[in-house]
Please model this.
Amino acid sequence: MAAQIIDGKLISSQIKDELKEKTALLKEKGIEVTLAVILVGDDPASEVYVRNKKKACEYIGFRSLSYELPAETTQEELLKLIDELNDRKDVDGILVQMPLPAHIDEKTVINAISPSKDVDGFHPMNVGALCIGEKGFVSCTPAGVIQLLKRGCGGKIDIAGKECVIVGRSNIVGKPMSLLMLRENATVTVAHSRTKNLEEVCKRADILVAAVGKAGMITKNHVKEGAVVIDVGINRNEDGKLCGDVKFDEVSEIASAITPVPGGVGPMTIAMLMNNCYEAALMHMES
Ligand code: GUN
Model:
């Protein structure tokens, strides 16, 4: 039987609509949620991402402050802007779009953002909080995967006690994904480029998360009958067509549920960013 499609576009719309309602209630109390978005240089993909983030803010009713800086901006200038935004009471979240030009050190920039405004969840303080089960901002893409699992297939996918295999160990997806799955009581395996017998390891999975960045590398030989397959990859194939890490056509024949690319994990990232901004505003309201 063909797999059920987990519709990320629909689920992300639901999350954004829920946020829109909650944001209207905050507005009635005179509270405005504000996200500052910083883009350095003119990378076309980053420009698209930033535009989409600003559009989502507008839809939900957040205020967005936009800083589009030239590629020659120095690290000192960027850090000074971040400092100013850290100090501003009317700014809830700060997002610096990655990648940054080569002369700017991304780690230094991430560390400069106040953890209480780090809506990307990249600051070591937030990563550490996730690791030891404390409250903090969680990286948006893995947080989105959890929502897809909880809300997809009519809420029938259980995570607790399941064998979960994550392929990929990046700081932004693979590692936080493993911690979130652990928090949901899954039994977690993280596979990567040095993993031996990858097919065998992946075949153990009840829930398989592919986050490698290689078009079509997960085939039907990696998937157990009835597994849930989440495809985090966003790649272009030889024809320039958008595709995931999973060979969708053949894997959807054996999986019980699967996310498509596009329209799966992708739209969830922005929805979760918006959720983090809302949470940041609530936190700042209390402090
Ligand atoms: N570049 C690609 N993905 C992301 C993301 O999630 N956040 C930021 N800040 N930059 C990115």
